[in-house]
Predict the 3D structure of the following.
Amino acid sequence: MKSNYFDTAAGTAATGREAEWRKALRDGMSAKERTAIPRVKMPELPADYRVTCNEEVNCGLSEEQAVLEATRCMDCPDPQCVNGCPVGIDIPGFIKNIQRRHYGEALRVINLTSALPAVCGRVCPQEKQCESRCIYHKMRKHPVAIGYLERYAADSGAQLREAETQDTDSQAIQTVTEGGVKVAVVGSGPAGLSFAGSMAAYGYDVTVYEALHEIGGVLKYGIPEFRLPNRVVDLEIESLRRRGVKFVTDCVVGKTLSYDDLLEMGYEGIFVGSGAGLPRFMGIPGENLIGVMSSNEYLTRVNLMGAGQPGHDTPVARGRVAAIIGGGNTAMDSVRTARRMGAEKVMLVYRRGEEEMPARIEEIKHAKEEGVEFMTLCNPIEYIGDEGGHVRMMRVQRMALGEPDESGRRSPVPVEGAIDEIPVDMVIVSVGVSPNPLIPHSFEGLEVSRRGTIVVDDATMQSSLAPLYAGGDIVRGGATVILAMGDGRRAAESMHRNLTEKCAK
C-alpha cells in the first residue's frame, strides 16, 4: 500500500491554497503593497573576521525579517517556483506558514518532499532554480528569497523536529509488507540520503553503507563549515535515524561487500549514490610537483579530517601564495579555505570571464570580500618547481572569449604570445571530477557510459541490473546537491512502485 507521506500539502483543505487562513493572508494586503517591500538582505559576518575562523558566514534571518520576506510572496495560483525546484517543494505552502509564524508546519510542508531542508537552504543555487521562476522577475524586481526562507524554516523548526517527525511517521508511514522489505543505499551523500528518507517514509527497512568514517558524503568532506556547518548535516542525519534509517560506516561496497553479497543479505533493491570522487587534472607539466593537489584532497583533509585544527594530526599544505584553478563552487570553497588556512595571497585562476563562472553569485561575492584575487581569462600551461621538487612558479596563458560551445558559454581561445609567469607555492586544481570507478567496474552486467557513469533510465533511475537504481554524480558526472536529491527521490518513487507490484503478485 502506498504511503501518502510525499503527497503534496497543497491538495489538503487544511494547508492548501484555498484554506481559509491562506485566503485571509492574501486578502490582508494588496499586490502593490507586497511588491513595495524590498527583498531581505542576509546578515553576514564581517569579512575581516570570518577569514580568521570557520564560523558560518551567513548568520540567518531574524524572525521579523523572515515574516516580512514571506509576506512578499504573492501565493500565486500557478506557482512556477515549484516547477523550478528539482524535488518539487510546495514553496508557497511553506512560505505562507512562515508568514503566519507557524514554523513547525512550514518545516513539515518542506519535509513532505525534501529530506535535507537545512542543507538546501544553505547550498542550493536558488537563483538558477526556484527563484529564477519567481513572478517578481516579470515586474523587474528581486525575487522572493526562497532559499533564505527555507533555511529559516529548517532552523526554526529544528527544536520541534523530533515531535513533528514522530507525529508524521505515526500518521503517514505504512509498510509495504509485515516484515518490511529491505533496501540498501550505497553512499551517504545528498542522493543517498534523499533516497533513504523517501524509502523510509514508504515503510522500507533501509540501510545506508558509507565508505568513509562519517555519514554525509560530499556534504561533510566537500563543503566547508563556513558554508555548511557539520552540526546542520548531523541534525538532518539524526532526523533520518529517527525515521528508522540505519547507517554503516567504513564499508566500501565493491570491496567490503559485493553486489552478490547485498542480494544474499536479502536486499530487494539497491540504490547507488556513490558520487564522483575521482579528481581530474589538466595533464600539463608540473602537476606532480609537491604543493600541487586536487580540491578533493585539500577540502577532505580540512573539512573531514580536521587538518589545521587543534587535536588533529592530519597534514595539509599551507601555502603563502596559493592559486586555485577553476570557477565552480568547489573552486570557491577552496580559495576561501586557503584564506582561512593562512595564505597571504590567494588567486582564483579561471580560463573564462567572471560572467561565465558556474559558481553561485553569493560565493563569488564572498570570495571577493575575503580578499581573493580573480585572474579571469587565464589558463595554466605549466608548473615549475624548485630544486627540492616544490612548486614555485605557474605559467599562465592569457585567453580571449570566442564562439559559444555546447554548454552555451563562449569558448576560451589563447592570445598568441601572451604568457605570464606568476610565483606560487601552492596550487589547488578544481577543474572537475569523474565518477567513482569502483562500483561500475565491479558490478558485472552493469551498463556504464564512456565517461564512467552508470547508465540509467532518465525517468525511473533504474540501471541495466533490475534491482539496482542510481543517481547523483555517479550518473550525472557532477551536479548540485538538489539535483542529486531529485534523483534520489525519483529513484525511490520508481523502486517503490516496482517493489509494490512485485509484492502484489
Summary: Residues 1-12, 165-178 have pLDDT under 50 and may be disordered. The two ends are 13 Å apart (CA to CA).
